[in-house]
Amino acid sequence: MAEPCNVVVLISGSGSNLQALIDDLHGAGSPARIRAVISNRADAAGLSRARAAGIDTRVLDHTRYAGREAFDAALIAEIDAFEPQLVVLAGFMRILSGGFVRHYQGRLLNIHPSLLPRHKGLDTHRRALEAGDAEHGCSVHFVTEELDGGPLVVQAVLPIEADDTPERLATRVHHREHLIYPLAVRWFAEGRLRLGADGAMLDGAKLPATGHLIRT
């Protein structure tokens, strides 16, 4: 049996997507193993989730570095000590430098709470409601130097309901995030998902611009 894919997860907060990954990837037959969880905040609740699962944790306080490039260089050194094939952003609230993104090109995934390319950035649930969108959801994508702009891997699509508030919509979207992020990580770990010259590839075929769509 092949060695599992080494994964490092970066977090800044509660770590709910981290927990979904821990739950999905546990067990001897998993195609991936989370080698470490790294946070830029010592009070990130997700660190406790990692420790409870027996996963190594590290904290790098970004305020202790002279700038983004210095922090990212230190972060790269911490990550690479665990020899990951994949780095997963799970609520990591830092804009990454171009050098960091290029260092992990093709092995850096992010999840975003909207149907990209709509509603890049923050406050996506309120913005979707204010825009009168009929659908909303979440997207897993490869990270490139364009903020929230890398090739899409998979999107979960759900209808916006008449009684949705930003808070209710956020809860509904979170449930979908916890489904599609482990799926994308498994695809990568199994060698099915790769970033090609023309975009994201699944099972050797180029994915559509929307990624693989899952409607719920």
Can you offer a commentary on this structure?
- It is a single chain.
- The chain has six helices and eleven strands.
- The mean pLDDT is 96.
- Strand 4, helix 4 (98-103) and strand 5 form a beta-alpha-beta unit.
- By secondary structure, it is an alpha/beta fold.
- It has helices spanning 16-25, 46-52, 68-80, 98-103, 124-130, 166-189; strands at 5-11, 32-39, 56-59, 86-89, 108-112, 135-142, 152-159, 193-196, 199-202, 205-206, 212-215.
- Helix 1 runs parallel beside helix 6.
- The strands form two sheets. The chain has an eight-stranded mixed beta sheet with strand order 3-2-1-4-5-6-7-11, covered by helices on one side. A three-stranded antiparallel beta sheet has the order 8-9-10.
- The protein has two domains: 1-104, Formyl transferase, N-terminal domain (Rossmann fold, 3-Layer(aba) Sandwich), CATH 3.40.50.170; 115-215, 3-Layer(aba) Sandwich (Rossmann fold).
Strand content: 25-35%
The CATH homology group name of the largest domain: Formyl transferase, N-terminal domain
For the biggest β-sheet, the strand order reads 3-2-1-4-5-6-7-11
Number of strands: 11
- The averaged pLDDT comes out at 96
The CATH class designation of the largest domain is Alpha Beta
| Stretches with pLDDT under 50, minimum 5 residues | none
The helix/strand class is alpha/beta
CATH names the topology of the largest domain as: Rossmann fold
N to C succession of SSEs: EHEHEHEHEHEEHEEEE
Annotated CATH architecture of the largest domain: 3-Layer(aba) Sandwich
Helix content: 25-40%
* Rg over CA atoms: 17 Å
Enzyme class: transferase
Binding site for (6R)-10-formyltetrahydrofolate: 68, 93-96, 110
Binding site for N(1)-(5-phospho-beta-D-ribosyl)glycinamide: 15-17
EC number: 2.1.2.2
